[in-house]
Structures are given as structure tokens and as C-alpha cells.
Amino acid sequence: MFTGIVEELGEVTAVENLGDASRFRLRGPVVTEGARHGDSIAVNGVCLTVVDHEGDEFTADVMAETLKRSSLGALAVGSRVNLERPTAVGARLGGHIVQGHVDGSGEVLARTPSEHWEIVKISLPAALSRYVVEKGSITVDGISLTVVEAGPDFFTVSLIPTTLALTTLGHKQPGDPVNLEVDVIAKYVERLLAAGQEAGA
User: Fold this and answer.
1) Which fold has domain 8-84?
2) Could you tell me which of 6, 181, 174 has the C-alpha nearest to residue 81?
């Protein structure tokens, strides 16, 4: 489990096409400290498994399903990525419960800067809109954010200077893809309510 509090801004150093999968090599001095084969690291919000690591770099295999559902397929050598290790038991939950299981991709639609923060508007797939509410939580490229406005096919988030400086959202421009993970609690509630209605039918 992750919390959506990005630990560092890493970089893709190599991409290998394996046909029905891709192998990424990524640099991240913080997240590779003490890393072992089989450990999990969230890359732009996608939970990946460490295949190998050497120095401050690690490799991870990404299967076709993940490439289809996320924006990882758009990564190239030199791309910056948000990196986070799983939360340790007993640690503070600084963001919200994030599984690293991306629900879909959105696209940056607009950026509106102000003196001390910036509003970013992001497209929202129709199938996910019912899980997104104003002042609720959403994960964008692995970043735990609070929804400012929730529209039928978009939402907005307000980014503070720290988020702009230390994550990929400081560099994303209109047209750029982002990974989205909605609040898992909303999905469980929906499933339980549907099961209860079927039982009572």
C-alpha cells in the first residue's frame, strides 16, 4: 500500500521493448536504498516489482495490460517519474490509501497559475466520474490530491509550490497523459450496495 506522498522525482534511463511487455530501468537514489528483488515501487502511481537493482537504479517489467491501462507506455529515456516506496506498518498516512492499481488515464486539459499555487484541469474517463467528488481524494501520477471541482468528464486540483517543484505535475503540459486511481473505498461501497440490492430483490 502507498499513500500518494511522492518521495522523489526519478528518471527513466532505459526502455527495452519485449514484445508483449516492456522493461524499464529507472534512477531513484532514495527509493533504491535498501531495495531488494521483489520489492514494490510506485512509478507514476503504478505499483511495479523490482526485478534487479544496481547503485541508484532499478529495473521493472511492465506487462501489456499495465501499458494499456496507464500512461507508462508513453515514457522514454529521460522522462521524469514520481517514485514512492510502500508505506511501512505503523507509519503516518500522509495522503490516502493508494494501491498502485491504476484505474485509467486522463489528460491535462489546462493550467491556471496564480501567485502561490496553480489549478490544473484533468480529463476524467466517464467510467470513473462517479467515484470522484469535490473535496475527495484522487491519485494523479501517484500523487495524493484533493479534488477542487468534479465535473462529468473532468476534475481540477490545486497544486502548492512543493508539489509543483517535486513532482511531474510541475512539468506536465496540456495534452500530456496522467495515470488516475480513484479512492478504493468508493469502489468497495458501490460493490457492497449493489450486492445488498441484489440480495433484497
Assistant:
1) Elongation Factor Tu (Ef-tu); domain 3 (2.40.30)
2) 6
DSSP 176: -
Q: pLDDT by residue (tens digit) across 4-26?
A: 999 999 999 999 998 889 999 99
pTM for this structure? Answer: 0.90
Q: 143: exposed, middle or buried (C-beta count within 10 Å: 0-12, 13-18, 19+)? A: buried
The angle subtended at Cα 11 by Cα 42 and Cα 140, nearest 5°, is: 45
Per-residue pLDDT of 26-48, as tens digits, reads: 999 999 998 999 999 999 999 99
Instruction: Give the integer Cα–Cα distance in Å for 44 and 10.
Output: 10
CB 75 within 8 A of CB 45: no
DSSP 2: B
Residue 82 · residue 167 · CB < 8 Å: yes
- Angle, CA 52 vertex, CA 47 and CA 54 arms, to 5°: 115
- The verdict on domain 104-190 having CATH code 2.40.30.20 is yes
Where do the domains of the chain lie? 8-84, 104-190
